[in-house]
Design brief:
With 203 residues, the chain is mainly alpha-helical. Helix content is 67%, strand content 0%.
Length: 203
């Protein structure tokens, strides 16, 4: 089962707590729910750490080869980025890399679902690729080509693994999404009401 919506509701309760007791109660409910379903917060980071170690090794290796530079990289590119040792003069590769990274986060291609994270953390993760765009513009084209290719392969793999026929063939159970018992509109109304009450207290 996909318990992401339920975890998100518990996290919203924790954030909406006005007193220390309410926050502690929400936190206790969160830990009990995670324990009941055998969910470990750190376990979701293992796939990311595994992929990150491989990515980092390749990243620094390619960066070193481009900085030397390796002669084959000077003519190993395509179209407008024929020289992989210099940055893209049109900034198309950094933009494509950023876009692929955002899609990769959205589909959970690295093996971790962002649904289990608090809303604020999700916003931070989605903002990081955009913040990194100016830095990517200064990268050698080889790094952006590698990063974009890696993202596209990961996205394709994630989409294939979401196909029911493929999951059935590999013996992977189908994802079952439980409907959220409390709609987001109700939560928005409650949050609006809480904000109005807090404003009145400060007046």
């Amino acid at each position: 089962y996909n318990v992401g919506p339920q975890i998100e509701e518990i996290q919203k309760k924790m954030m909406a707590g006005k007193t220390k007791e309410e926050v502690l109660k929400g936190r206790q409910e969160y830990y009990e729910f995670m324990s009941k379903h055998g969910i470990s917060p750190t376990a979701t980071l293992l796939p990311i750490l595994g992929n990150a170690s491989i990515f980092t090794s390749m990243f620094f290796a390619l960066n070193g080869m481009a900085r030397l530079p390796v002669d084959s990289l000077k003519v190993g590119g395509l179209a407008w980025f024929s020289d992989l040792t210099v940055s893209d003069p049109y900034f198309l590769l950094p933009i494509l890399t950023t876009s692929s990274l955002l899609i990769n986060l959205k589909v959970g291609g690295d093996g971790a679902s962002l649904d289990t994270l608090p809303p604020f953390m999700r916003k931070v993760l989605y903002a990081l690729p955009l913040i990194s765009l100016p830095v990517m513009c200064a990268f050698p084209a080889a790094l952006n080509v590698y990063w974009m290719s890696s993202n596209l392969i990961t996205i394709t793999q994630a989409r294939i693994m979401n196909i029911p026929a493929v999951r059935a063939k590999l013996g992977i159970p189908a994802m079952k999404i439980r409907k959220n018992p409390v709609s987001s509109s109700i939560w928005n109304l409650e949050e609006l009401k809480n904000n109005i009450e807090k404003t009145r207290k400060h007046i």
